Amino acid sequence: MKKGEREKVFSLLENSLSISSEYQFLILDKMEKIFSSAGDYEKYGEMLKKRLEENDYSPQIYLAYCKFLRKTGKKDEAVIKLKEFLARFPEQPQAMMLLGDIFLEEEHIDEAVEFYRKLSRRGVNTKKPFVCTNCGYRVDEMVWRCPKCGKWDSVKYMPEIE
Ligand SMILES: [Zn+2]
């Protein structure tokens, strides 16, 4: 993809972030891939930061920004942000997982163990953020058709955020 085309795709994806919060994680994932493969990863981070500064307090965008900070080596900042996030959404599984991973990388083993222990107490649903709105069946990844009841387009992204 050429630079101009890439920017066009990026702005289309950015617009769709505002209209479909349900698929935000998929859109963010795509944006991250496009720009990291083009060696323009910072641009992805800038977009996330800007949205957060403009008060788009979407948990998905916030977490994506924390992941970006971690990948670009700003781990201290990522830890601060994740702790802020967890003060607002206590025990949110993705944030806890990310924080646990950073502690592990930084060899803060005790803190990592504490987070993983809290996570494991939350039960199996934390690992299956997709749920069928027709029958309630939970799955690990996005599927177009529910494997249990067979309904199309009924599976939505609904992580358990408290
Ligand atoms: Zn179903």
Structure write-up:
The protein is mostly helical. It is built from seven helices and three strands, in the order αααααααβββ. It has a three-stranded antiparallel beta sheet with strand order 2-1-3, with no helix packed on it. Helix 3 (41-53) packs antiparallel against helix 4 (59-71) and helix 4 runs antiparallel to helix 5 (75-88). The longest helix is centred in the first third of the chain and has 17 residues, at 3-19. It is globular, with a radius of gyration of 17 Å. 25% of the residues are buried. The model has no long low-confidence stretch (mean pLDDT 83). It binds zinc ion (ZN). Zinc ion (ZN) binds at residues 132, 134-135, 137, 146, 148-149, 151, 154.
List keywords for this structure.
162 residues, 3-stranded antiparallel beta sheet, mainly alpha, 7 helices, 5% strand, binds zinc ion
Please sum up the structure shown.
The chain has 162 residues and is mainly alpha-helical. Helix content is 60%, strand content 5%. The protein contains seven helices and three strands.
